[in-house]
């Protein structure tokens, strides 16, 4: 992909500040998975004053519930799930240091404002390209909420994980930009 | 009466849910290739190429096209001259789902609506049964992902809304759905019937080969009009901008009450999966 930016997870403020909506990125490093019910548990833990199952500082959270690994594989298919369902929880995790989210689909305006405030970036991976995306996941370990099955929190080591910046910390939104460019005026 | 043993149904269902999740239909691949020719955005074309590559990997490795291997939905047409021996039809279908999702390494995505506790085997399936003439049992597996299913809507229009009201609602629904349902999508539209009948029509419309126009010229014209208007919104593949948001719009209609004009939209992601078996 042209002009691909290589980034390493976890992220810091300097790395986040360089990213702009529309940037194609290749992510290498460690990311964590969490989706619907895992988010509820993470925020419930915060509400109860309990520690999170992992240090959120600098982390990139991937919204995914992978399919089971076939024998000999580290993971099954593992594409992004729709992100807006995590909107209710996202700012709480940003307050704890989350620097990136990977999913697909539009975010609420409040979340986009929170991203500006807390310097957190939102990436999209290609929804449905799950067999291909799995190839960039090199190691997987369930670290919390095992009982949730596909929704358990996993620590993933990724290499050259392809994504695109949808919302940067400057308030830009690639979905709005792309739509405006190709919309046929009525 | 022709007897079919429930074990035959279990085996057929198991095979279908696995095959549907591993092997994207040629109709969808052809729709991607058609989209590549007409897509104005280079990013959009790159997305379509990625989806073709993903489908090839899934087929070659026999792994799911998408990690969301869906709620297991079945359309069953049962001939009136068929007698099922052994287990109940619904139990046989659930057993096929149970075995297929386990042995096929498919994700189990079904949970209690309140506790969110996973049922662990992707059951119960949704079974839409129709009794028909003959001595065959025709089963269509249509596993459906949650992300695109969440974009469904039912509205009870007034008859005065007419075709314009229908087109406006469907186009607006797609614009609101945006990047959420993994475009390029197939838009299933049900018109008429009662509320629940209308929703089933919209889902059934998704079973048609992608891009095959309705045999009813009036509906085919409506499909073409809506497809053009949806793609003119500029959302494109994955909502990243472009001219191929929808691969097709499929409309099914049914007579309705004199007071009503029910309209249902059931959007399907590009992983439009179905397998059919006639027993």
Topology:
The complex is a heterodimer of chains A (186) and B (279).
Chain A: E1 5-9, H1 13-18, E2 24-33, H2 36-47, E3 60-62, H3 87-95, E4 100-103, H4 109-118, E5 121-124, H5 130-133, E6 137-144, E7 153-167, H6 174-182
Chain B: E1 2-5, H1 6-22, H2 26-38, H3 42-61, E2 73-79, E3 82-85, H4 89-103, E4 126-132, E5 137-141, H5 146-149, E6 153-157, H6 162-177, E7 185-192, H7 195-205, H8 217-231, E8 246-254, E9 261-268, E10 275-278
Parallel strand pairs in B: 1-3, 2-4, 7-8
Antiparallel strand pairs in B: 2-5, 5-10, 6-9, 7-9
Helix pairs in contact in B: 1-4, 2-3, 6-8
Q: For the report, how would you describe the main beta sheet of chain A?
A: 5 strands, mixed, barrel
Provide the β-strand percentage band of chain B.
15-25%
Oligomerization status of the protein chains = heterodimer
| Distance from first to last alpha carbon of chain A | 33 Å
CATH architecture of chain A: Alpha-Beta Barrel
In CATH, the homologous superfamily of chain A goes by the name: Fe-S hydro-lyase, tartrate dehydratase beta-type, catalytic domain
Radius of gyration of chain B equals: 19 Å
What form of chain A results from the Cα inertia axes?
globular
Low-confidence runs of at least 5 consecutive residues of chain B: none
Q: Any idea what the radius of gyration of chain A is?
A: 16 Å
Average pLDDT taken over every residue of chain A: 96
Q: Which class of secondary structure composition applies to the elements of chain A? A: alpha/beta
Order of helices and strands of chain B: EHHHEEHEEHEHEHHEEE
Portion of residues in beta strands of chain A equals 25-35%
Measured as a percent range, the helix fraction of chain B is 25-40%
What is the makeup of the main sheet of chain B?
4 strands, mixed
State the name of the first-level CATH class of chain A: Alpha Beta
């Amino acid at each position: 992909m042209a002009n691909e930016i290589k980034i390493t997870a976890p992220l810091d403020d300097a790395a986040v500040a360089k990213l702009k909506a529309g940037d194609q990125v290749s992510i290498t490093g460690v990311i964590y998975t969490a989706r619907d019910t895992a988010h509820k548990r993470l925020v419930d833990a915060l509400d109860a004053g309990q520690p999170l199952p992992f240090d959120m500082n600098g982390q990139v959270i991937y919204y995914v519930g992978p399919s089971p690994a076939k024998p000999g594989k580290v993971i099954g298919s593992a594409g992004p799930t729709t992100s807006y369902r995590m909107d209710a929880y996202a700012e709480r995790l940003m307050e704890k240091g989350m620097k990136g989210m990977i999913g697909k689909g539009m975010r609420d305006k409040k979340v986009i404002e929170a991203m500006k405030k807390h310097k957190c970036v939102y990436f999209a991976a290609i929804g449905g390209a799950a067999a291909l995306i799995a190839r960039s996941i090199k190691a997987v370990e369930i670290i919390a909420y095992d009982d949730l099955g596909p929704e358990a929190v996993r620590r993933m080591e990724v290499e050259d994980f392809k994504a695109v910046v949808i919302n940067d910390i400057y308030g830009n939104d690639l979905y709005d930009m792309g739509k405006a460019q190709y919309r046929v005026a009525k | 009466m022709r007897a079919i043993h429930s074990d035959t149904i279990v085996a057929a269902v198991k095979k279908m849910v696995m095959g549907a999740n591993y092997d994207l239909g040629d109709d969808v691949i052809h729709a991607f290739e058609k989209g590549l020719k007409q897509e104005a955005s280079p990013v959009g074309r790159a997305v379509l190429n990625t989806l073709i590559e993903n489908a090839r990997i899934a087929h070659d490795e026999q792994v799911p096209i998408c990690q969301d291997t869906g709620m297991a939905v079945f359309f069953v047409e049962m001939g009136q001259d068929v007698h099922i021996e052994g287990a109940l039809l619904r139990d046989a279908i659930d057993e096929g789902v149970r075995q297929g999702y386990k042995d096929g390494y498919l994700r189990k995505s079904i949970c209690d609506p309140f506790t969110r506790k996973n049922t662990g085997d992707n059951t119960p399936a949704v079974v839409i049964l129709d009794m028909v003439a003959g001595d065959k049992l025709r089963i269509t597996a249509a596993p459906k992902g949650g992300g695109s299913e969440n974009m469904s809507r039912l509205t009870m229009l007034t008859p005065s809304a007419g075709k314009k009201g229908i087109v406006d609602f469907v186009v607006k629904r797609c614009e609101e759905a945006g990047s959420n349902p993994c475009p390029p999508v197939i838009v299933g539209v049900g018109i008429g019937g009662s509320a629940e009948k209308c929703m089933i029509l919209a889902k059934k419309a998704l079973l048609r080969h992608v891009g095959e126009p309705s045999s009813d010229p009036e509906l085919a014209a409506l499909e073409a009009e809506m497809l053009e208007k949806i793609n003119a919104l500029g959302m494109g593949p994955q909502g990243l901008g472009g001219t191929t948001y929808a691969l097709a719009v499929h409309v099914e209609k049914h007579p309705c009450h004199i007071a009503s004009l029910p309209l249902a939209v059931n959007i399907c992601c590009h992983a439009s999966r179905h397998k059919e078996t006639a027993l």
